Task: inverse folding
């Protein structure tokens, strides 16, 4: 029987690989001399040392092409007079940056971006955390509820904007009509600065809260259940368990969610642009809800000045890094504060 | 070291077969694309991109039936602002534009400044086809004709006779015309109207009325050497009049072409509006089912031309000759007459203006008004062609935003004017 098996294996190998023509039981390297086996040893060593880099290289090569190259190219464009259609003009050094920083719309857009970001990311992560905590309990039809919170994420942003656009319409919108029923005046959603930020943040929250909740839920499910049992024996209630076990245990995931939503929140574009009803679509008649990316678009495509657009894009890049760092330290600290209640012996 | 089993071999073979089939399939698709106009299907396919309504649907079917070797498809977008963004983005990208692009009249000077990106459409056979001002607006400094004119925009006044009656105003076309000879008369009648019919504005939008007034100013934004001059007395007068009207309740305070603006046609939002020929189709579309619209043979301050478009062929087009041939055909007088019958786009072609099909045309939606005759009279009344330089379209957008800030209550007129000046500085 063993003989039979060996023959079959050989046949299979042969048919699969036409190059491997020798008899299956004859190793190819049998006649190799000593130098060759040292060569093999070296190959082995290199294999162990370098192969992992080769395996992860596709990501970095792709990143180089579609991430790093545009970043550097944008930096090059930003120091030239560069027209959308005419292409590269004169070298102007940092003049584009000075122009952008001196433009009143830059600061307005920066404040709007931060305001919309705070109004969206803050509530979003808190609600996601609470929602994930609820989904982590023993629910009937858990999969149904878990898929349910993801539904808004599947809807295209353009469709979200159309739906919310008719809800937040200044004259014939549902919210304002509802306010009218109870005798309150309508809110000027498109002209009041704060009101427009709230409307846009609502759109963003509706779309992203469920997505973040699912990521947090996945992390929560990896928390060892015995921690909860021990806490229950010690007399900790549900809320105390959540703040003292769940939140500190998933801290790395919270940091991840905070940083990704920082990046996404500061680059917000589709929602405010589709929310806009003015012809120029620069974010309201007085740029009440113009964001940094909308300003990049305004410079690049309305004013056809890619130099200033690139300078704005780089300033946005720097701003995102700064705020991501601030958030990183804040959320570490938030985790550490929450961790005060955690008894030492639970430390893994 | 192979440890293959027959099962693994079979899987491998299946995968390989699938891969080969897939790559063959892809290659076949690639072949089709690269073989455009080859032996398999010898017709050339060209596209024409338009915005708003051009009235070309039936004409394109007619062409396609008669010319199996050049098949045309139309791409439509809602507003010129959308079309403009698409145009500039794809001009910059160097690809993606249609073989023929429609250009709004006010933006033509900016297009002429980028003449290199477009095909020279000069054709001596077409000399004299268009009205002089239309041909001049499509010709660059080197004497090349970059665009073929489609329609012109002589303006009359569209009005709601039922609402006029409610306000105790005359409803007859000629009597209405008698009360709108100047802008002062027009606005004074409006004040009378809004007192009688509260809740309904006099005109559709501040922005639209602004364009109507600007088209009677010789140098609205730029001097004839293209220097920007927005602090001129004429422009300030238009701005002052319109912002004062907002407080008087004459304006709907809506953005022209916005959803609320479209909805206001159905909700007795306003009683009159400045109507170039091409606007007639827009009004009858938006106000579908609303009775009482009429069209008066008058325009405040005489005549005015608003809009009227051009067709251009971008250099990126792979079939510039066929595109040119089609553009020349569809802008011929006979075709433009049909577009006029379809949606009211008034011809800019000399021969079409005297054709009985144009002059005798009436419009059922507008109480059977003789729109052909009225628009011809309005065209004859045009005395001023405003100077529009390459920045005209951009400045106009900033000016409209300035009016909107006063409309929506964000700014008072003085603040908004300051913002407008700084916006123009950024251009």
Result:
């Amino acid at each position: 029987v063993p003989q039979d098996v060996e023959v079959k294996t050989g046949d299979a190998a042969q048919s699969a690989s036409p190059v491997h023509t020798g008899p299956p039981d004859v190793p190819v390297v049998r006649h190799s001399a000593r130098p060759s086996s040292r060569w093999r040893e070296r190959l082995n060593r290199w294999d162990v040392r370098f192969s992992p880099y080769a395996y992860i290289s596709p990501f970095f090569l792709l990143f180089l092409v579609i991430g790093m190259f545009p970043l550097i190219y944008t930096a090059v464009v930003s120091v030239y007079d560069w027209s959308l259609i005419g292409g590269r003009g004169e070298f102007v050094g940092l003049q584009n940056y000075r122009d952008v920083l001196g433009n009143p719309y830059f600061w307005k857009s920066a404040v709007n971006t931060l305001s919309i970001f705070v109004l969206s990311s803050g509530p979003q992560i808190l609600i996601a955390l609470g929602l994930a905590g609820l989904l982590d309990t023993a629910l009937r039809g858990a999969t149904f509820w878990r898929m349910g919170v993801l539904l808004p994420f599947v809807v295209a942003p353009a469709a979200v904007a159309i739906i919310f656009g008719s809800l937040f319409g200044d004259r014939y919108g549902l919210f304002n009509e509802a306010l009218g029923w109870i005798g309150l005046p309508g809110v000027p959603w498109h002209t009041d600065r704060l009101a427009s930020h709230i409307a846009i943040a609502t759109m963003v929250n509706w779309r992203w809260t469920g997505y973040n909740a699912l990521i947090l839920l996945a992390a929560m499910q990896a928390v060892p259940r015995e921690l909860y049992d021990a806490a229950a024996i010690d007399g900790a209630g549900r809320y105390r368990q959540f703040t003292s076990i769940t939140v500190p245990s998933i801290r790395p995931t919270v940091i991840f969610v905070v940083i990704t939503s920082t990046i996404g929140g500061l680059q917000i574009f589709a929602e405010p642009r589709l929310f806009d009803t003015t012809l120029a679509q620069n974010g309201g008649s007085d740029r009440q809800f113009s964001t940094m990316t909308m300003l990049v678009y305004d410079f690049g495509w309305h004013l056809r000045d890619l130099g200033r657009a690139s300078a704005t894009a780089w300033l946005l890049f720097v701003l995102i890094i700064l705020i991501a760092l601030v958030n990183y330290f804040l959320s570490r600290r938030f985790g550490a504060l929450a961790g005060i209640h955690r008894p030492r012996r639970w430390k893994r | 070291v192979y440890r293959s089993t027959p099962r693994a071999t079979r899987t491998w073979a299946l995968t390989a077969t699938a891969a080969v089939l897939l790559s063959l399939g892809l290659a076949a698709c690639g072949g089709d694309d690269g073989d455009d106009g080859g032996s398999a299907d010898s017709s050339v396919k060209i596209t024409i991109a338009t915005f708003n309504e051009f009235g070309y649907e039936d004409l394109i079917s007619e062409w396609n039936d008669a010319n199996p070797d050049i098949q045309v498809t139309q791409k439509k977008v809602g507003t010129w602002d959308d079309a403009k963004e698409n145009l500039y983005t794809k001009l910059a990208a160097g690809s993606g534009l249609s073989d023929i692009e429609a250009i709004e009249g006010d933006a033509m000077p900016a297009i002429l400044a980028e003449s290199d990106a477009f095909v020279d459409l000069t054709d001596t056979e077409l000399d004299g086809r268009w009205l002089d001002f239309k041909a001049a607006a499509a010709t660059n400094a080197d004497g090349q004709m970059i665009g073929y004119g489609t329609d012109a925009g002589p303006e009359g006044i569209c009005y709601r006779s039922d609402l006029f009656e409610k306000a105790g105003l005359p409803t007859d076309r000629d009597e209405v015309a008698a009360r709108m000879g100047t802008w002062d008369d027009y606005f004074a009648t409006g004040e009378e109207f809004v007192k009688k019919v509260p809740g309904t504005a006099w005109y559709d939008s501040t922005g639209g009325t602004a364009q109507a007034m600007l088209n009677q100013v010789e140098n609205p934004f730029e001097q004839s050497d293209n220097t920007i001059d927005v602090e001129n007395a004429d422009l300030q007068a238009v701005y002052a009049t319109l912002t004062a009207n907002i407080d008087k309740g004459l304006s709907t305070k809506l953005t022209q072409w916005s959803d609320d603006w479209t909805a206001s046609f159905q909700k007795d939002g306003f009683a009159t509006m400045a109507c170039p020929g091409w606007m007639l189709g827009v009004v009858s579309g938006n106000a579908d089912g609303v009775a009482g619209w009429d069209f008066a043979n008058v325009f405040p301050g005489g005549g005015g031309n608003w809009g009227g478009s051009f067709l251009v062929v971008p250099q990126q087009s792979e079939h510039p000759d066929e595109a040119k041939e089609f553009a020349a055909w569809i802008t011929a007088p006979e075709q433009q007459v049909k577009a006029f019958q379809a949606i009211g786009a008034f011809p800019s072609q000399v021969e079409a203006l005297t054709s009985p099909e144009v002059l005798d045309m009436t419009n059922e939606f507008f109480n059977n008004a003789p729109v052909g005759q009225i628009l011809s009279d309005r065209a004859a009344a045009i005395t001023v062609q405003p100077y529009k330089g390459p920045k005209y379209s951009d400045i106009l957008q900033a000016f409209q935003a300035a009016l909107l800030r006063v409309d929506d209550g964000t700014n008072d007129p003085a603040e908004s004017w300051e913002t407008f000046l700084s916006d123009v500085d950024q251009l």
